[in-house]
Amino acid sequence: MSAVSHREAASGGLWSRMSLGQKQVIWAWSFLAVPLVFYVVIRFWPTFQAFYLSTTDWTITKPAAFVGLENYWRLFEDPLFWQVFRNTFLYLILGTPISLLISFVVAYYLDRVRFMHSFIRALYFLPFLTTAAAMAWVWRWFYQPVPIGVINDLLSSLGVPQQPFLRSTTQALPAVLAPAVWAGLGFQIIIFLAGLRAIPVTYYEAARIDGLSEGAILRKITLPLLKPTLVFLVVFSSIGFLRIFDQVYNINTNDPGGPLNSTKPLVLMIYQTAFSSYEMGYAAAQTVVLFVILLVISLVQLRLMRDR
Amino acid sequence: MATVELDRLVKRYGQTTVVHGIDLSIRDGEFVVLVGPSGCGKSTTLRMIAGLEEISGGEIRIGGRVVNDLQPRERNIAMVFQNYAIYPHMSVADNIAFGLYRSKLSKSEKRQRVEQAAETLGLSQLLDRRPSALSGGQRQRVAIGRAMVRDPAAFLFDEPLSNLDAQLRTQMRIEIKRLHHRLGTTSVFVTHDQVEAMTMADRIVVMRDGRILQVGTPLELYENPVDIFTARFIGSPTMNLLPASVREGGADLTLGGSVQVPPAAATSADILIGARPQDLVPSSPDVPGLTVSGTVAVVETLGSETLVHIESAGQTIIGSAPGRQIPQIGEQLTLHAPAERLYYFDTATEKALAAR
């Protein structure tokens, strides 16, 4: 920057006549321009393209024709959509609280463990690094009937009847959710640990002197002070569960979506509409609906959990 | 209100001992300051009294009751921390009321106590505010309020003024002192700042390396330091120490000149002669004492007095001149301290030689 300004100053050009503030503005914008252009081309333009597509009947074999909101009416009358909608929300309202509760309990106690602390933390983080495809295949194997499936083996050795898991319309969704929760734990634990570590020790010492029990310290000090961490994780994990796809797709590759679509989430429906049926316009309408759901839920959560 | 007694108190972390069996008896209503450089064990000692650190050996008694195995909350003490430790998600009133968490008082009695404490500390207008809307001094007052409401047996202060700026520190020092006069609660105050120790304490406990070096009133410590460490630690600027070798009837300074030495101080061959900068003034040596001459190197103008650093035979000596009499740098200056204002130490043992 200084090299340029020196050169310009020597030639007495436009640059040298600008004030320092103007120069800073020009520099700032020239650096910002790169990511800005990138995002407009890669993110915003396709997003608006999707909004447009959702109002057409494009199927890749024939040119797109404008059909207005017809795709949306079709979607709201489609019983599969409501099934998928219900599944997606089940993933959300089961997955978010369960995963946050487990990861908080683990982080809360792991924070006090000195013995091999880093190693244990790394173990919890490991599933987060594993690809969903490999993980889904391992879990699929867990859920097999006797004598292959580990879980059914264990159940039968305890005298409990075998469970169908992925083959059942009622058990399939929780069975798919379990590995998804398990895979996200490591990340949430790390974030919770960082949040717990950020609370000054003297807060706890002062509370001990004032006579608070462990439970009261957790309720009155730890949790309120952990609120920013909690808000972040609730929003982050909600978005994750609303967009669940790879776990579901890989655990049932021969029959994606489970028996009678009992595990099919919205993203999988979009995927099948777009890349099995090639109904691009209809798929785009579904994408817009997902976008609106994500937006509304995130905004509501942020508003509810904001510091009053 | 209660006495606090430490009896051969020891703290060990694994192999390292950080407090080496100290004894201390604090009277009811006394304001005692533990002072020393960082790592001297003063904070650890305070935290053991509070019950935040386990005791490795010895005994702590609060009001005659052995508290070694009691939880902090069972000791009926209150503590004020360096970083205030007031909760950002609660109002000032709730923070102060936290001190009454375990008390059996009714809601209205609690509120009354909180209002009373707030009134004493000048926080009445701020009770509904969040700590983030308060200044550092106000936050520390909230922390003191939380300690006050419970009417504890003793107040423990762990460097409570270190996070405040210089002006506020002076002001809070006075406020805490005034509060102590009013409440008369036994207080133990930890600081590394000797000025805080001197201005606030009924008695000062000087600590180093986990041991107590000296206990006494501020003036006792100033007048009769038992060793070089205390002599240099108490008083600002630091006491000058000039090496000298004892001969018949006096001592020769290594930087030239000689001094009359009382017989009690002439028991060692090599001694250090101490003179406080306030006693070392430019005057004619018509009374017996210490006389040093040198070149003025630095002058610190304080208004009320002028500190003069002179260099003589490679050693820097600090003296003082009246506020309006400012020597020139490079000027030759002779400083003199009367004999009765001098201190004598053994070079080898670093102990004081004669009680003055």
Number of β-strand runs of chain B: 19
Distance between the termini of chain B: 36 Å
Q: What's the oligomerization state?
A: heterodimer
Low-confidence segments of chain B: none
- Listing every helix as H and every strand as E from the N terminus to the C terminus, the arrangement of chain B reads EEEHEEEHHHEHEHEEHHEEEEEEEEE
Task: Let me know the largest β-sheet of chain B.
Answer: 6 strands, mixed
- Computed CA radius of gyration of chain B, to the nearest angstrom: 24 Å
Query: Please, how many helices of chain B?
Result: 8
Report the largest inter-chain contact: A-B, 16 and 22 residues
* Apparent shape of chain B: elongated
What is the H/E string of chain A? Answer: HHHHHHHHHHHHHHH
Q: What name does CATH use for the topology of the largest domain in chain A?
A: MetI-like fold
What is the count of distinct domains of chain A? 2
Largest sheet of chain A: none
Topology:
The complex is a heterodimer of chains A (308) and B (356).
Chain A: H1 2-11, H2 14-17, H3 20-53, H4 70-77, H5 79-110, H6 117-129, H7 132-142, H8 150-157, H9 172-197, H10 201-210, H11 214-225, H12 227-242, H13 246-251, H14 266-275, H15 280-304
Helix pairs in contact in A: 3-15, 4-15, 5-9, 5-12, 6-9, 7-9, 9-12, 12-15, 14-15
Chain B: E1 4-13, E2 16-26, E3 31-35, H1 42-50, E4 57-62, E5 65-66, E6 77-80, H2 92-97, H3 107-121, H4 136-148, E7 154-158, H5 166-183, E8 186-191, H6 194-200, E9 203-208, E10 211-216, H7 218-223, H8 228-233, E11 240-247, E12 250-253, E13 258-259, E14 270-275, E15 289-301, E16 305-312, E17 315-322, E18 332-338, E19 343-346
Parallel strand pairs in B: 3-8, 3-9, 6-7, 7-8
Antiparallel strand pairs in B: 1-2, 1-4, 4-5, 9-10, 11-12, 11-14, 12-13, 14-19, 15-16, 15-18, 16-17
Helix pairs in contact in B: 3-4
